[in-house]
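Dear colleague,

Following up on Tuesday's group meeting, I ran the structure prediction for the two-component complex that the binding team flagged. I've pasted the input sequences exactly as they went in, so you can double-check that nothing got truncated or mislabelled along the way. The structure tokens for the whole assembly follow below. Feel free to forward this to whoever is handling the docking comparison.

Inputs:
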Amino acid sequence: MIDWYFSHIVLVQSTLTTLLLALSVQVPLRAGVFSFAGVGCYGIGGYIAAIGMVHYGLSTATAILLSAVVGGVVAYALGLLIQRLTGLYLAMATVAFTLIISVLVVNGGDLTGGAAGLFGALGMLDTGHLLAVAVVVVAALTFTEIGPLGRRVEAVREDPELASAMGINVARYRRATFAVSGVLGGLAGSMTVLLRSTVTPDDINFHLVVLALTIIIVGGSRSWLGALVGTVIFVWMPEVLAFVGEWEDVVYGVLVAAAAVYLPGGVTGAAVAGYRTYRRKRREAADAPPDGPPPQPVAAGVGGDS
Amino acid sequence: MASGTIEDVDGAADTAATESVLRADDVAVHFGGVKAVDGVSIELTPGRIFGVLGPNGSGKSTLLAALTRLVPLTRGSLEFEGRRYDTVRPHTIAARGVARTFQTVRILPGRTVFDNVALGAESAGSAGKAERGRARQRARTAIERTGLAGKERHRPDELSYGYQRRVEIARAIASEPTLLLLDEPTAGMNRQERDDITGLLGDLRGEGLTQLLIEHDVQMMVDACDHLFAMNFGELIADGEPEAVVRHPAVQEAYLGKQGRAHA
């Protein structure tokens, strides 16, 4: 087990940071906000952590905390700016934000290291730290999926007008998802960079948008569990598919397309739907009259359609 | 009761100096050149069931959207319990005690009956453990009253259309509102279901809940309401006791046409 862990430590750590990145896109999506701002904040977080450590000698914890706060503030400000946009237009605006971040860091001179990026930002991080952050984040997000808050978030996603009639300030919820997404993106970016010790503009490009989206499509968009399942699939898939060699990309593409077509709620969505069908059938079986002689007529006025 | 050129067909019956729950004055909602609602004034007094009657496209639902701030007013003013609210945002209306249902069934598809009703119950407050407990109790009471007991764990796709409409009504009354606005609450229901809902609304009136119903089913409105407003082409055309309003020539004409009125 220990040998296995040390030979796969990069994948284990990458699973935890990629989970945070996927959650940074899933959180707004769960409230009906089609935003990729979390990916842009991943870039901001990565560069702030690297700049903080390389140029200003910040500690690992300070660099991560600063990245999360700046990510949250920037995403919230972006949310204020584009709060009237919805659907694909919102998605395009947030993708543009992500691309702008990568252009800015290319042209950031000595501060960002230009096209070559920054080196030597090795943080004092281990798998335990990553796991602790992931557990805290997942525990916090669980509260947004259950109970009164879960119902309200779902109402905001499914029917904003209904949510509004239920006294829910839809605009505030949307802005809050931007902020949370920015914090998660900042955390993911900073921790990834501090593990690798380097960051370059290529690390924060459009491919991260595609990665986060495919994780959520395949894993499921309605729960943190979907993000975790999708993350495990896509982080570990290259390892599992090593035997197919050069066909890996083809298999990858077919799996994503199949999930999008046949599992509209992702792997976890299909599992939940299957479980509900099973429960419904059990309930119907319990409600059905037992085998035996037909029931005798009852006295008039007794029974009814209840 | 109503202003402008419309005719008050029951005269002094509604002139008692009761403080109004809701007052809409000269409300207009125009969409470009379309005057969906144009100069409508209504006043709702406590503990009564009011109805807005009119053929399809007469502006009933737009009036309801205006009263709940879902569409902006082109002109006019709105007051709830003596406070102006024509500039506030829609979500603040619920907190003041206005609940509504929609013309089409709008319930959360992935949630159980209890969750859907709890959403309404929580709009009256769910902060803190005690408040959450009270919200759950309000939801359970609303479920009982609307005949949904035993179906709490069902999902909307396991319910008939009539039961789905009950979920909407349960969600609205679970917030224990001061004013309940119902947009065609019995649409698509059979006679028995319709009578059940009419009975429930009557019970709620007995408890002092003011209600405003939007419908185009004339008989249901006469059965359920204490006072009717009739609309056509965005304007009020009659206002008063239900029996008198449905006999009013302008209302008969709106429903049957001039020729139909001659034969009626």
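DSSP finds nine helices and eleven strands in chain B.

Cheers,
M.
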